[in-house]
Amino acid sequence: MDIISWGWIVAAVAGELTALAAFWIRARWRAQAEKARGDSLIAIAEALPGGSRLREQRADGSCTTLTVLTTSRQGGRRG
């Protein structure tokens, strides 16, 4: 009886750890994807002339709109 009880406990703990690891991997992947997306939007915005507008529509329906402001100083970072 003790062997069966310990087996169920081990299986439950292993299942929880697997679910937690899957959640962590998914969250890490999503954070990296969002960072790459943000970096590419910043690079595109920096390449656009002042007064331009950039609109990104994602497959899930969300939308990001960036307006590139004009700056009086040269070489400054916009975004």
Strand and helix map with partners:
Layout: H1 2-47, E1 53-57, E2 63-67
Antiparallel strand pairs: 1-2
Keywords: Membrane, Transmembrane, Transmembrane helix
Transmembrane segments: 6-25
Written description of the protein model:
The chain has 79 residues and is an alpha+beta fold. It has one domain (2-67). 58% of the residues lie in helices and 13% in strands. The chain has one helix and two strands; from the N terminus they run αββ. A two-stranded antiparallel sheet has the order 1-2. The N and C termini lie far apart (65 Å). Keywords: Membrane, Transmembrane, Transmembrane helix. The chain crosses the membrane at residues 6-25.
Supply the key terms.
rod-shaped, two-stranded antiparallel ribbon, alpha+beta
The number of distinct helices, counting runs of at least 4 residues, comes to 1
Mean pLDDT: 83
Taking pLDDT < 50 over at least 5 consecutive residues as the criterion, the unreliable ranges are: none
Q: What oligomeric assembly is this protein in?
A: single chain
Overall structural class, as computed from helix and strand content, comes to alpha+beta
Largest sheet: 2 strands, antiparallel
Number of strands: 2
- With strands numbered from the N-terminus, the spatial order across the biggest sheet is 1-2
Give the helices and strands as they follow along the chain. Answer: HEE
* Basic shape: rod-shaped
Helix content: 55-70%
N- to C-terminal distance:
65 Å
Q: What count of structural domains?
A: 1
Work out the radius of gyration: 24 Å
Strand content: 5-15%
